[in-house]
Amino acid sequence: MMNKRSFNAAMAAGLLGGSVFAGSAWAQAFPSKPLRVVVPQPPGGGFDVVGRLLADRLGKALGQTAVVENRPGSGTLVGTDLVAKAPPDGYTLLVGSVSNLALNPGLYPNIPYDSLRDFEPVGLAVAYSYTLVARKDLPFSNLRELIAHAKANPKKLTYASGGSGSGQHVLAAALWNLAGVELVHVPYRGAQAAYQDLLGGRVDVFFDLSPTARPQVESGNLKALVVSGSARLPFHPDVPTITETGVANLDLESWFGLFVPSKTPADVQERLRSELSRIVQGADLVETFRKAGGKPLALSGEQARALVKRDVDRWSKITRDLGIKAE
């Protein structure tokens, strides 16, 4: 006959076993409803394209719908903060990039989220370089000639951006600062408006994501002076990197990936990470990224965290030191 002590021990074991089983069953059940992938910018552009490519494949891999939700506002602050404060259950993911996670902390004095504390990378999928393009009648064939002219003629040249505080703006401002020259910043509401004035000869140069700039360069409408990545691009093999020119030791690639709130359960994070890792290494997606001018990354875990931290620390300091502010 079971005594009281034995009875209590059996009950405790049963309860413990039940809780472990319930936890295991809950983890195995994830996901049991649709996921949402938050893009902190309007449809179109790098955030949206990457977000939709990843969401479509992740949803299929998990057996659930992954709905892309565009939540623009205050640059990329609104959508990014929404995910930071979302329930940490794995059902709300953020498309994160250099722009919203590495640049924003230095651009806004009272940013509502902490890029390193509030988010955990599921994985980084692709990185894109920027290309410095010039109007085709600008009388310079390379970056060194442009810098020499800018030194001799302060504030005579103009550079466009898709908005104050954008990657296009920050990268250019950092380059001019390191080169010791002054160019006049002309911010636009998005890249399309910037291209209209660049093609019309009303502004001189523009740093834009290389895949977007590529058609204009290949058509002869604009000329490429330099790329911002650590290596030359396969589709522009004759265009040097910034570092290669000797003008400045500077490089920036805009990476994109998926992130979840940092308090998301470890087993849910691991499920998402495992599926995304397989997806970004798939031949079809790798080829899609490469055709668009991207560099496939397939980084997760410590590698992803290290890259994100490096760029958060580096670019937050650069934007603060240069006094660059978002509008």
What does this structure look like?
This protein has 327 residues and is of the alpha/beta class. The chain has two domains: 34-127 and 253-322, 3-Layer(aba) Sandwich (D-Maltodextrin-Binding Protein, domain 2), CATH 3.40.190.150; 129-245, D-Maltodextrin-Binding Protein, domain 2, CATH 3.40.190. The chain contains twelve helices and ten strands. It has helices at 4-29, 45-62, 77-84, 98-107, 143-152, 167-179, 191-199, 210-218, 242-245, 266-280, 283-291, 301-322; strands at 35-39, 66-70, 92-97, 119-135, 158-161, 184-187, 205-209, 222-227, 253-261, 295-299. Strands 1, 2, 3, 4, 5, 6, 7, 8, 9 and 10 form a ten-stranded mixed β-sheet that branches. β5 (158-161), α6 and β6 form a beta-alpha-beta unit. α2 (45-62) crosses α10 and α4 (98-107) packs parallel to α12 (301-322). The radius of gyration is 23 Å and the shape is globular.
In short:
This protein has 327 residues and is an alpha/beta fold. It contains 12 helices and 10 strands. Helix 2 (45-62) links the parallel strand 1 and strand 2 (66-70).
Name a few traits of the molecule.
alpha/beta; 10 strands; D-Maltodextrin-Binding Protein, domain 2; 12 helices; single chain; 20% strand; 2 domains; 327 residues; 47% helix; ten-stranded mixed beta sheet
**What is CATH's topology name of the largest domain?**
D-Maltodextrin-Binding Protein, domain 2
- How many strands in all? 10
Tell me, what's the shape? globular
Total individual domains: 2
Largest sheet: 10 strands, mixed
